[in-house]
Design brief:
This protein has 153 residues and is an all-beta fold. The protein has a domain of 98 residues: Immunoglobulin-like, CATH 2.60.40.10. The strands form 3 sheets. It has a 5-stranded mixed beta sheet, with no helix packed on it. A 4-stranded antiparallel beta sheet has the order 3-5-9-7, with no helix packed on it. It is rod-shaped, with a radius of gyration of 26 Å. It starts with 8 loop residues before the first strand and ends in a 15-residue tail after the last strand.
Length: 153
Amino acid sequence: MTLVTIKRGEITLPLHINIVGTNNSQPNVLNICATSIGPPVKVTPEELDFGQVEVLKDYSQKVTIVNASKIPAEFHAFTKQKVSIFKPMIKHAILKPEEKLEVEVICNADDSSKFNDILHFVVKDGNDRDVVLRAKGTGSTIYCVENLEYLNF
């Protein structure tokens, strides 16, 4: 017997069993109880600390997401803050059973201050995972693209 569920949660399913050769005309009832879960995923590390980063430059670190189940796991990745200095390079993917994927996170500080954010991994029909993001911008945000040693008026 195989039990396939459509939604997550507690399930109770009555199973009626007739035993051949007994005088009992009523079937015996056996309740099958189960908990249906979605694909469990693991995300490591749970925190990315970029430390001190020079403003207006890209810095990169990676997060590994692993599908620890026998079914596909679909996820969406995004930061808590709508406008963030942190950007996941993969925003949506479907992991095959027992597949792992490295998600690159880019940090580009736009000010010389401390930054904190959360990278959410929302797993379809599974439990969501979060990664804490930190960085401290250093340096000046004032710059000029052109060389200022020679000015031609």
